[in-house]
Amino acid sequence: RSPVTWPRGPELCVCVYAMLRARSLRLCRPPLAAFRLLSSAAGPSAPSPSASAARRAMRSPVTWLSAAATLGVLYAGYEWQYQRQLHRQRAAGRPDLGGPWSLVGVDGQRVTSEQLQGQWVLLYFGFTKCPDICPQEMDKLTAVLRSLDGKGQRVLPVFITIDPARDDAPRLKAYFGEGEFHERFLPLTGSFEEVRRACRAYRVYFTKPTADEIRAGDYLIDHSIISYLLSPEGHFIEYFGKSLSAAEAESKMTTLITEWERERYLRATLPQWVAEAMLGPVEVPKGRTEAPKLPPIPAKPVEIALPPAPGKARA
């Protein structure tokens, strides 16, 4: 691999300006004889108008204003190419996950995926009888969410049980009412078909207990350990596995949220043809014929208030 690389970004702008400046000076520098001829013709008196015009004509066409305009155009072109490539990479490498679902909250009210739009959402699939993995992952997510809260990037954590036979609304309320996890956690349950539909939308793997195990009530469920970040539009953005630490997950979420909000700002402020030329067309979700409109982000995201339930220990 050659150690010589082409300059990129601001370095390219500086190199181009230096070459243009050197070339203009080399081409437009008048010979010394011309200066002597003008000086001898003018004599001791003030230079004639024709001599001043000749000097002005022989000046370099590259000025600070033209150089700044050239650098601005070059940097804008570099940023345009960078944003297009970044948008293409995200669109090409993003799996087709997500879909509508409808579940039940701890208060017995129906909660749908459409109702959560307008804010960032972090989905996690687990069950309350999980002895160690689920509590560890939710403790990690709690640390990540508190760090994001400090940066002003609020995300609503949603816990969807994969064990609806045991995780009914009262048990979920007691489990999350102990105050060990983030106070905004929204626990959801439902029938087995409703839970399976939500899991299939995000390709969540989990084993189904047998009838004997359900009657006995003492069983474990093998399942995938992944959390999913959804944009305020309700689209899947990225997933986070168990291998990521809290610091790595927080850094990745911060970058994704910042880039998404920057792209949204550009699409809202720039003309449509400029935004599409720079960022590409708006992605149309599966099953729709037109791009969705950006929903407004509420100033105060939905707060989930769970009453404490002392005396009930977590299993």
Instruction: Give the helices and strands as they follow along the chain.
Output: HHHHEEEHEHEHHEEHH
Shape: elongated
Strand residues, percent:
5-15%
Per DSSP E runs of 2 or more residues, the count of β-strands stands at 7
Name the quaternary structure. Answer: single chain
Provide a count of the helices. Answer: 10
Q: Helical amount among residues, as a percent range?
A: 40-55%
Largest sheet: number of strands, sense, barrel closure? 7 strands, mixed
Overview of this protein structure:
Helix content is 45%, strand content 11%. The protein is α/β, with parallel strands linked by helices and 315 residues long. Strands 2-1-5-4-3-6-7 form a seven-stranded mixed sheet. Helix 1 runs antiparallel to helix 4, helix 5 (133-150) packs across helix 9 and helix 9 runs antiparallel to helix 10 (272-279). The longest helix has 30 residues, at 64-93. The chain is elongated, with a radius of gyration of 31 Å. The two termini are 58 Å apart. Mean pLDDT is 76; it is low at 287-315.
